[in-house]
Amino acid sequence: MNWKLEVVMVPVSDVERAKTFYASAAGFTVDHDVTPTDDVRVVQLTPRGSGCSIVIGSGLGGMEPGSLQGLQLTVSDIDVARAHLAEHGIDVSDVRHKGPPDQNGTKFVFFSDPDGNGLAVQELRGAEDPAHVSASTT
């Protein structure tokens, strides 16, 4: 039996602002934006090529906005990813090496959403390959 991580809740204070950030600036696809009741709104967004989505919304309970740290994305070219984020107005770190620069999986950039939820982007050769599975840690 496979156990797949499909959705990660990201706590935000302003759903519209967060939706704009993730969809327009970070380039995630908006999968759903539904309001099943007057008190609940659920917005599901997926990074291009990912099998896991994030959910933002209101009336969902749980964590405080900005309290999620360490959400990690992988890309095949960190320089292209960093340029995309910067071109879309995201305050993104310089490329950082974590470990020997000749090893796969050692280049990272870091950024936060408007609430302060922290994300990392890791370069992994082969990250565009759907069969690629990362076993790395940060």
Notes on the protein architecture:
This protein is α/β, with parallel strands linked by helices. It has a single domain, classed as 2,3-Dihydroxybiphenyl 1,2-Dioxygenase, domain 1, CATH 3.10.180. Helices cover 15% and strands 33% of the residues. It has 2 helices and 8 strands, in the order βαββββαβββ. The strands form 2 sheets. The chain has a 4-stranded mixed β-sheet, covered by helices on one side. β3 and β4 form a beta hairpin. The radius of gyration is 15 Å and the shape is globular. The two termini are 27 Å apart.
Give the tags.
138 residues; four-stranded mixed sheet; globular; alpha/beta; 2,3-Dihydroxybiphenyl 1,2-Dioxygenase, domain 1; 2 helices
Low-confidence stretches: 130-138
| Secondary-structure element order, N to C | EHEEEEHEEE
Under CATH at level 1, the class stands as Alpha Beta
Instruction: Identify the strand order in the major beta sheet.
Output: 1-4-3-2
Distance between the termini: 27 Å
Structural class by SSE content: alpha/beta
CATH-scheme architecture:
Roll
Strand content: 25-35%
In helices, the fraction of residues equals 10-25%
> For the CA atoms, what is the radius of gyration?
15 Å
Shape: globular
